[in-house]
Amino acid sequence: MAKMLPKTDVVIVGSGWAGGIAAAELSKKGYKVVGLERGKAQVREDFIGSKDELRYDSRKVMFQDLSKETLTIRNTTDEVASPNRSNDTNAINGTDTGGSGVHWNGMVYRWLPTDFEMLSKTVEKYGKDMIPKDMTVQDWGIKYDALEPYYDKFEKATGISGEPDPLRPGQRSSDYPTPPQKETEIIRTFTKAAKELGYHPYRIASANLSEAYTNPDGETINGCVYCAFCEAFGCDFGAKADPIATVLATASKTGNYELRNNAYAVRVVHENGKATGIKYVDTETGEEFIQPADLVVVSGFVFSNTRLMLLSEIGKPYNPKDGTGVIGKNLTAHQRNLTHTRVRGFFDEKKFNRYAGTGALGVTMDDFNVEQLDHTKLDFLHGFCLRTSQRGDRPISNNHVPEGTPSWGPEFKEKSLFYANRRIDVQQQNGALPWRENYMDLDPTYRDVFGDPLLRVTSKFHDQDRNIVKYAHQRSKELLEQMGADYITVPDINEDTEFDKTSLSDHTGGGVIMGENPETSAVNNYSQVWDMDNLFVVGASSFPHLGSSNPTATVGTLAYRATEGMIKVLENGGQLIQDGKETAAAK
Amino acid sequence: MADKNTNKPENNGQVADPSRRNFVKNSGIAVGGVAGGALLGGLFTSQFGKKDDKKSSSGADKKPEKRYEEARMFFTRFADFAILEQATERIFPEDKNGPGAIGLGVPYFIDKQLAGPYGNNVKDYRQGPFTNGNGTAADSSLNRGEIIINGLRKMSDESMKRFDAKFDDASEEQQTEILKDFEADKVQLKGISSKAFFKLLRTLTLEGAYCDPLYGGNRDMEGWKMKEYPGSIASYANMIEEKEFIKMDQISLTDYQPK
Questions:
Q1: How far apart are CA A326 and CA A512, in angstroms?
Q2: Structurally, how many domains does chain A consist of?
Q3: Which of A313, A339, B62, B165 could be joined to A334 by an S-S link, Cβ 3.0–4.6 Å?
Q4: Structural domain boundaries, residue A105
Q5: Domain for residue A415, yes or no?
């Protein structure tokens, strides 16, 4: 029997960017907030002296503990799903204080105006026949202009270092808070080649800051020293904007926020169409608790949010056969064996300082993004960014060799050593559009450590997904030729290339998507659940599809928007959107 | 062959230097194949006992350092460990660039890893039913330690069957042939595909070659030196903009971490 705890104003599941932003904004307003984090407590000191590739990158100790819970995965609905058992193949889902926001690389992109109106813009430009059968693309129920102030707020809270995209004039209300990071020879080489080809390269906006910065809440982030340990690592120097250094610190200072670690949320408790709290297990003692609250916020990774909704029986589960229901719908990802494949250029005469770098140190371009392309001449929708980044190559995970070289033995050793610093990769990242049978539901067989069904992922590639990547690889190859690479390896993507049943990607979206009406979406554009006014589900689970770049800034943006909605509901109650318009409660 | 095996009771008192044993074997091949392995080993023994042995991984002038951490935590049979040594050396061999897997301490690194949480799949989802769905080491109902043991023994069986020689007595070419067949999934293993076993072995070998030396691999940071990887340097802020390549001395976590 779960122990009932004293009621609080707000309970938040998760302490990553989404949960952290909600915690900061609500506690600043004076609301009493309890945060529940399934992982352990961590502070900045935990990351000092942590430059250990084997421990953090190979053994992935900052990622989710899969002995407690994982996903099951299959390609199609007629297959039996099997569990993703290891972090070797898991998405890099976070756990512990700050969630994935602590071990991210720090790339910050704003998604394009078209992203938020993907269905209507495509139909307007090309007619409705342009949408492939079974593509469940839809609008987000909000436009870029309405979201711009929240993007701006996220960038200022995190001190982002960057410069504007030359192809998007007038889309920013203010400059990035800090200038771009330093330029390296790899960045210079890419930029020169891109300009020679008539493109519009610009620096990737970075949460690894170019200089020390104090945000509007008074939190200071240090200047980056380019030490090369970002992805999968916490920052040794307090120089990466993460939830611990920013929003959680702000929430903590108010005295109104209590973060409980080792608190594994298992249900949203509800009664008569109203959320009443969160049931969780203290994983150190095994005890069950219910934390009652006036307002409940579910803000974990896509998988956690979707699974909590399904386990709690809130909202109608999506049915891929007839397209009815919403929970679990529109699962999309920048899959690692498709979107995240790279074209690699090897140089016999040029040697770069590849061991140095930061997660987001690089240069990108949007010349092939959705708004720049004429899709009547192409066999795909949406588009992609191209870029190169210098993260700092670590020796276990970087043993790339030109095509035709064996993957072990004398020749491999010789060439992997020779080319260790003689390489530039061009990476594409494309918009990932949703399909009718790519979705999530509860698995009929496998259970977690608490006895609950695991979440089941069903996902396969379509021609559209492969075509866009193949096209992008050719553009990447041309860029590397312009740079003068001696050997270029292009990943082999053909009609047999299929989702490899790893757990998708760290860039995963959908499941509890936002939209214009309750028939086709689970939450409104404040991330408020349509049929449960005091429940907000915040995070990448809200994305009806994935844009053509990294998702974190959009997660942060939707979280700031959501928190505004939460405050309105705490003040006035009620549903904030009806018939596509804001209600009296929202004013 | 096993004359330099200081892990055997009759050889105690000698300092282990597995790279020498490897050299003995390679020389054996050069002079006439595997048949006379034990004999050749015997012939070479006294020569390699000399302090000024140029082939020693620890350098010409240095007395080999006694490494108290190089005893087996996981492997119970020396025979299994001997196969592991040769297999990892084939994957990452000694060459003009520097030491191979044995000289870098990779076999002992793997032994330690398999004895710990990774070898026991502690952070993995381990509830059944197991369908070995993705054919990875984690999808097997065997843990990683069991997979490695089974795979190594199967390699030895294959070697006996094909060449009438134990794997660690077979020639480099013969060892390589067996490893290639495992990689190509041509050998039947119980509980996992030979391809998945090989992938795990290759991954562990590279990890041992390039991890921080605190784990017992990358001995003396020789793996990093060959790759011109500097290790745990605090800051690259002063050189990140440089056009030319900058070679740096290596720093390990032992030196980097605050004490």
A1: 7
A2: 1
A3: A339
A4: 3-574
A5: yes
Sequence letter at residue A435: W
Task: Identify the pLDDT of residue B213.
Answer: 97
**B129 prior amide bond cis, ω within 30:** yes
List pLDDT tens digits, range A103-159: 999 999 999 999 999 999 999 999 999 999 999 999 999 999 999 999 999 999 999
ipTM of the complex: 0.95
Q: What is the CATH number of the domain that holds A146?
A: 3.50.50.60
Q: Is residue A145 part of a domain?
A: yes
Question: Is B53's pLDDT higher than 60?
Answer: no
Q: Taking the model in full, what pTM does it have?
A: 0.92
Q: Is residue A587 part of a domain?
A: no
A408-A411-A417-A418 Cα dihedral, nearest 10 degrees: -150
Comparing alpha-carbon positions, the chain B residue that sits nearest to A51 is B232
In A, residues 199-238, which contact B (CB 8 Å cutoff)? 224-228
**Considering the domain boundaries, does residue A406 fall inside one?**
yes
**What are the pLDDT digits (tens) for A518-558?**
999 999 999 999 999 999 999 999 999 999 999 999 999 99
Say if residue A217 is exposed, middle or buried (CB neighbours under 10 Å; 0-12, 13-18, 19+). Answer: middle
User: How many Å lie between the alpha carbon of B119 and the closest alpha carbon of chain A?
Assistant: 11
For residue A185, the chain B residues in CB contact (below 8 A) are 242-243
Kindly give, in sequence order, each residue whose CB lies less than 8 Å from that of residue A329, ignoring residues fewer than 6 positions away: A136, A318, A434, A439, A510, A511, A513, A522
Q: Which of B202, B231, B257 lies nearest to residue A408, judging by beta carbons? A: B202
For A9, which DSSP code?
E
* A381 DSSP assignment: S
8 A C-beta contact, residue A391 and residue A231? yes
Q: Answer yes or no: are the C-beta atoms of A397 and A314 closer than 8 Å.
A: no
The contacts of residue A405 (CB under 8 Å, 6+ apart) are A411, A412, A415
Q: Is A446 at the interface with chain B, CB within 8 A? A: yes
